Amino acid sequence: MSLQPVAPPDDESTTLGIEIYARLRRDLIAGHLKPGERLRFRQLSAAYGVGIAPLREALSRLVSDQLVRFEGHRGYTVAPLSLSDLHDLCALRTELSCNALRRSIARGDEDWEAEILAALHRLERTPLPHSVEDRKTVDEWEQRHDRFHYSLIAACDSPWLLHFCGALSDHFQRYRRAVIVVTSSSEALLKRVREQHRTVAEAAIARDAERATAILAEHFQGSVEVVIRNYEEVSRSLSAGNGDDAP
Amino acid sequence: MSLQPVAPPDDESTTLGIEIYARLRRDLIAGHLKPGERLRFRQLSAAYGVGIAPLREALSRLVSDQLVRFEGHRGYTVAPLSLSDLHDLCALRTELSCNALRRSIARGDEDWEAEILAALHRLERTPLPHSVEDRKTVDEWEQRHDRFHYSLIAACDSPWLLHFCGALSDHFQRYRRAVIVVTSSSEALLKRVREQHRTVAEAAIARDAERATAILAEHFQGSVEVVIRNYEEVSRSLSAGNGDDAP
DNA sequence: ATCCATATTTTGTTCGAACATCCTTGCGAT
DNA sequence: ATCGCAAGGATGTTCGAACAAAATATGGAT
């Protein structure tokens, strides 16, 4: 087996449009761009150092990703957050992820098992950020967390299901990161979450579908409750009527 | 209070980008643009009578819709069809649609019932096209068929689920229309399909979730089988290796 | 002071041209 | 004859400017 060709420094065959799409997507999910915020071309152009053409391309894709909204002649805005969307999102995510996990358990091979253990290990070795200010640590943790959850369902053998789970996961992350200011809110909670990660991995590899899906559902339910609790608090505190939750 | 401003003839606040997106989407789903086909800008620009800027915008969105593929510096192509994708698509569509139908039955009100009956009536009154050449009739039938199936699940109260069902439905339509040359292949089949439409509507309105989902699943299963049978035939006949089914 | 109409500015939209990359063609060497 | 390389053409990408629509500011009348 050969090593990587020394260095893939800048991806060949990439375009500005692709790059800016990825960067905007990251910033959207990370909450760096605030929900409801207008995305003005000149402003973005200056901030990201690209022209308008690639920007339009990226924003168009993000519309179909449901991460930004578009109104003709009135420009693009960051997709708002709303409690009803959060509920919908989470319910479906639980259902689809459990479905995918079930399939994964039925079809996964040794590589799948190995990947789960690897992802879990990496996640557990990542320090939890103490505040949202510590952007680098948050990014790292979120990435590994995502990767762990992805590894669980990766063997479900359904690209469409994976795609939908990914979309829902991305959107949920938006809520989580918009809302959670301190992760160390409760030492007990953190311990429980870590325990759930470990147990769901264990059950999955033991091919115990019932147990694995039950724990996963419980894990999601727990996250949702925390997010919803914080969401209500946060939206109360900045009740400046930011066009949230509206019809 | 004033009346509507006489007439909303052409949608206000529309842009070329939006329009061309809708047109391309239609043509993609209808199979007017063939799977694997390269989408050259100059060609499209001439065919649709718009500049490159709106085209790029539309194509970008269609990438996120999974209807076209994009490779940096190598342009856009119509997303290919493949047997494995078809299987994946159909399995998930059945699952999600039945799920949505179940929720709809639990939450639907009288308007939901009325809409189902209206959509069913319109569908039954639409003549079946005798060949794919009769584009207008095919379009009309497909639209009403879609609308009927949408009406069944419309009350599921989950925008995300509806969105996913819609995406899967659109993609399945692509296969159906690419593959079915004559609908009048079997008089018995047609009769059965019509019967299924009628029965699923009836069961839904009677709030018999078990029966409704069973029939809907059966209905999908039947369509899938027809499409797959034709798919194999069609791809055998034009086995010029059109980059199908690849990894 | 408020309201409405108009002027101005800001912002989004579209086009055409310049630029970069990829693909094909044609030539020459092995 | 085949392979590799170079030149040319085709195609995708990006930018800047012209255009159009919307939002904002201005000024006058009630």
UniProtKB/TrEMBL annotation, chains A, B:
InterPro entries named in the record: GntR_C, TF_FadR/GntR_C, Tscrpt_reg_HTH_GntR, WH-like_DNA-bd_sf, WH_DNA-bd_sf
Keywords: DNA-binding, Transcription, Transcription regulation
SUPFAM superfamilies named in the record: GntR ligand-binding domain-like (SSF48008), Winged helix' DNA-binding domain (SSF46785)
Pfam families tied to this protein: FCD (PF07729), GntR (PF00392)
Domain HTH gntR-type residue range list: 14-81
Keyword Nucleotide-binding: no
One GO MF term attached to the UniProt entry: DNA binding
PANTHER family to which the protein is assigned, alphabetical: HTH-TYPE TRANSCRIPTIONAL REPRESSOR GLAR (PTHR43537:SF20), TRANSCRIPTIONAL REGULATOR, GNTR FAMILY (PTHR43537)
Protein name per the record: Transcriptional regulator
Source lineage: Bacteria, Pseudomonadati, Pseudomonadota, Alphaproteobacteria, Hyphomicrobiales
